[in-house]
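Consortium newsletter contribution from the modelling node. Members have asked for a concrete example of what our holo predictions look like. Here is one, prepared for the NAP complex that several groups have been discussing at recent meetings.
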Amino acid sequence: MTEKNQISFKRACVIGVGLIGSSLALALREQKLAAKISGVDRDADVLARAQKLGVIDGGETDIEQGVRGADLIILSTPVGAVGAICEALAHAAEDGAIIIDVGSVKGAVAQAATTLPDRLHFVPCHPVAGTEQSGPEAGFATLFKDRWCILTPLARSDAPYRAAVKSAEALWSAIGAEVEIMDAAHHDLALAVTSHLPHLIAFTLVGAADDVESVAHGEVIKYSAGGFRDFTRIAASDPVMWRDVFLNNRDAVLEVLGRFSEELAVMQRAIRWGDGKALEDAFARGRALRRAIVDAGQETPAPNFGRDRESGEPV
Ligand code: NAP
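And here is the predicted structure:
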């Protein structure tokens, strides 16, 4: 890695060439941040497709072969795979390599990284950007533009590690993300509120609707524009990725789920007792929060999330 006006790497290796890994590879390529980009995936077909799409220059199913010569290693598999990958990197990665991940949970990832020797510099990262799609075909270079990327550096204060954290910050900034540094436990609680709980609710709601025997399946689909459809977009997210999020962020999710259940009971009571003021006040808070998200530039003000009603495509 050299640091002149901007960072650049000799060889980046993306482990897990799916939505996030391929988007990051495309963004690095677009900004000319890496001279070569290789991929590692357990599925040779994914590597072949990613190479054909121009995401990677070549790939390996074997991690030790794949990371040879890499000064930047990107872990973009589901979080549950990170422990075993770190064990392989502990002896296979080149001295001084910077390792970043993109996992949606940070405490468990930091724990998995404890097997790495100090000659390797692991900077846990979470780009708060994504879609419900998976695989290399879903990747695009602008995914991280104007989105937050949260870094939760390990408890290391040596100069090479501090330099690696600076490089990771520079990398995300160079591809258009806004960087924020925070503690892993704080990240996991905040994201349990803003991401993990909403996904859990969407998965549960869609599952429950599918189970309701009095409503024909055809009607659930036919009248889905009433609100249900927006939940199904979230519920279409990758099952393995989300399994690993809930297995690895158990305590924070259970904490916010407890609070949510209490709020839901309050709503249930307000409906039962006809307390219109309580309902209206709660819904007004929801509308105000949505407005704040739009004002912060994290969502489009256009109706229907800026998608065409017929085709569902962005307009
Ligand atoms: P994805 O599209 O399913 O890509 C994951 C890739 O990793 C797949 O190609 C998968 O292969 C591969 N893989 C799984 N285990 C592996 C292993 N042990 N070794 C090598 N490759 C392996 O998922 P994604 O959405 O990019 O998510 C990747 C990471 O990004 C997750 O940690 C997630 O928490 C994080 N993240 C996701 C989002 C989002 O919105 N999707 C947003 C921010 C962060 P197979 O296809 O064979 O399973």
